[in-house]
Predict the 3D structure of the following.
Amino acid sequence: MAEIVRFQRADRISGIALSEIVQISERARMLRGEGHDVTALSTGEPDFPTPEHVIAAAHEAASRGETKYPPTAGTVTLRDAIAERAGVERESVVVSTGAKQVLANAMLATLNPGDEVIIPTPYWTSYSDIVAMAGGKVVTVPCSMAEGFKLTADKLAAAITPRTRWIMLNSPSNPSGAIYSAGEIEALAEVLQQYPHVWVLSDEIYEHLSYQPFVSFAAAAPALRDRLLIVNGVSKAWAMTGWRIGWGIGPAELIKAMIVVQGQVTSGACSISQAAALAALEGEESLLGDRRNEFEARRNLIVDRLNAVPGIECPIPDGAFYVFPNIEGLIETGRFSSDAEVCDWFLNEAHVAIVPGRAFGLPGHARISFAYARSDLEKGLDRIEAAVAKLTEIEETDR
């Protein structure tokens, strides 16, 4: 009888698991299934609906018969609309199944084993895993709250080696909400001018959720456009997370390589979703301002209330819909050994789901999303305040 061989993971994913964000969401779902009233403030999905004119455009596209295989690089109309907004040619644009696929396409198309990618921390959880899956080596550069969670020119210069292939930036940032100013981008670009082998990936998916002036890397550093990939999409600003449309804008040679990868993984993105995305880009954008204003009001609410909680220090984010407070004051009570334990305690004791900073490469913090309705935010904040107050009472009793 032949020996039974147990399943073995490929080495490329040996150290990769479901993101901690997903794991926490699943635990929250499990607690709800057990009858607990759990308030989840852990995911980055707007509570707003997809705009009606976008949904109507999708229906119309389906009725017209736009249900066949789409071009691998994206429909001509959508690529042209993206190109026009960016001031580039169609050949510099690829449309993918979400911005995450753009990131994966770029890394798979360019990295050889051992090539290095500089990622400032805190960073979105998928960045490091995508680099690892593509055979690259992640080089993290911690950027503290005191530094505004932003990479400085000096730190960038110190991290670059002959093996560096990319630097990944995210502005506005998930999880910190930090936005790089034109001057800060120019300072980074000045360093990069000395290292022509280093390319820049600028993830600008939260472009339209900026509460301070937003500057694209392409606009602030035009001299680097021949080695710059801009990543964007419709998921966040237009509340179209489930439509799965993102795009990359970069040098035609890079885009061609990314299209080759995409052709062997998913082929073209959903034709109906592309028609919807086109309607989003060509439609009235006043609703973006209205929604941004609402997110800003929620931001102010959550920052004010968190800063009133002992042990929590919450800076004001300039963009996106997350706060990334420092919770070391809670860890220092001696009841917790890490940010992860604090977040576990909030979930199990207060039934509020938030994500520890370690998931984003910067322990001692927690990410809390304000992409939720105000009623959910108020409930979650009430529970956080009550839990910390109870903790304080226990400490005083122990003394």
Observations:
- The radius of gyration is 22 Å.
- The CA atoms of residues 339 and 364 lie 5 Å apart.
